[in-house]
Amino acid sequence: MTAVRQRAKADSSNSEKLYGIAELAAELGITARAIRFYEAKELLAPVRANGGRVYTRRDRARLKLILRAKSIGFSLAEVQQFLELYGSRGEGRPLQVSFLADRSAAMIAELEQKQADIVKTLEELRDIHAQCLRFLAEDGTPCKTAGDGEAADAPHKKSRRTAG
């Protein structure tokens, strides 16, 4: 029995609120299939009761954390690593915080680089767009444009010239 499943059994023995898979899925805006996927990846381990899955408040919190981590770019392997650092009673919390600090710093650097690349690409596209508009104006070809870089699909004169 995995550590996750052992904790789930211990949590369900308390008299706390329990959730069915449909209830949990609806509350979090995901599908039951997504929850089963996270179970298959051993990120969640509900207990079985009356032939169905039963989730504790801890499972709910864990699922919310999984969804949040995925939404900001963590891989499932990273999520699993983060969750496993917690330990059985939270003794790994400092390790979790250290992992999160390191990983978030790396992700910030990666996103800042992507942002710089996007800015450069936008500058290049704006330059190309301006060259195209100048060419069409010199050629006398009508062209609609939204003025914000979005070219519309206006009919153009047939011309063999290329923008350059």
Automatic annotation (TrEMBL):
The keyword DNA-binding applies. InterPro entries: DNA-bd_dom_put_sf, MerR-type_HTH_dom, MerR_fam. Residues 18-85 form the HTH merR-type domain. It comes from the Bacteria. Signal peptide: none annotated. SUPFAM superfamilies: Putative DNA-binding domain. Gene3D superfamilies: 1.10.1660.10. Keywords: DNA-binding. GO terms for molecular function: DNA binding; DNA-binding transcription factor activity. Residues 144-164 are annotated as: Disordered. Pfam families: MerR_1 (PF13411). This is MerR family DNA-binding transcriptional regulator.
